[in-house]
Amino acid sequence: MTGKKEMIGYRSYLIYTGLAFLLLIALCGIAAAKPINIDRPVLIDLGKYNQVFLEEVKAGSILTVEIQVTTGGDIDVLLMKPSDFENYKNAIAQRGSINYIANGSIIGQRIKKYTYTFQEAGDYYLVLDNTDVPKGGGSPLNQVEMNLKVNVEPPSVDKPTTSDSTPSSTQPPKTSGFEAIPGAFVIVMLALRKK
């Protein structure tokens, strides 16, 4: 009798562990990219910089940046990966060269609005630079006051449009991996129940 109670205890343990595991998988799959929306005044001292951390950007997300310098000279807006940002901080002190994503950056501007589509997922820094780095960039003259707008929109999921002239597919819709989880759970439960 003790063996049977032990077996029931193990079965319950397996069931609850399986449920917890499936819930964990489901929650990991639900995490969605959050849009980033910043609209604020920024003050940058001469020879300094300000940065905006863009966390967990998805590939295909669209960055929109709008700057308007209200007081001071031209600035540089540089989009960088975290490793490039660390090198940038050293380059300011040592007057070295820097790496940045050229298509996602602007150099020597006072008023500008631009967009950039992220090619790779990951973390990024948007650096508002009032230093003499990079070469050919804005020439810092004094403190800069500016208005900054930054918006990152996650990639949109376009639904295909159908027209009357295009025949629809006769194949059944494919089941995504997320929808297969309940099916796997049912199979495991049936297998445990028969024992």
List keywords for this structure.
4-stranded antiparallel beta sheet; elongated; Jelly Rolls; alpha+beta; 195 residues
Question: What would your notes on this structure say?
Answer:
This protein is of the alpha+beta class. It folds into two domains: about 1-30 and about 180-195; about 35-155, Sandwich (Jelly Rolls). The protein has three helices and eight strands, in the order αββββαββββα. The chain has helices at about 1-30, 80-95, 175-195; strands at about 35-45, 50-55, 60-70, 75-80, 100-110, 110-115, 120-130, 145-155. The chain has a four-stranded antiparallel β-sheet with strand order 1-8-3-6, with no helix packed on it. α1 (about 1-30) runs antiparallel to α3. It is elongated, with a radius of gyration of 26 Å. The two termini are about 15 Å apart.
Largest sheet: 4 strands, antiparallel
Mean pLDDT: 81
What is the H-and-E element order?
Answer: HEEEEHEEEEH
Tell me the number of helical segments per DSSP (H or I, 4 or more residues long).
3
Give a short overview.
With 195 residues, this protein is α+β, with helices and mostly antiparallel strands. Helix content is 31%, strand content 35%. The protein is built from 3 helices and 8 strands.
Write the layout of secondary structure elements.
Layout: H1 2-30, E1 36-44, E2 49-57, E3 62-71, E4 75-80, H2 82-94, E5 101-109, E6 111-117, E7 122-129, E8 144-153, H3 177-194
Antiparallel strand pairs: 1-8, 2-7, 3-6, 3-8, 4-5, 4-7
Helix pairs in contact: 1-3
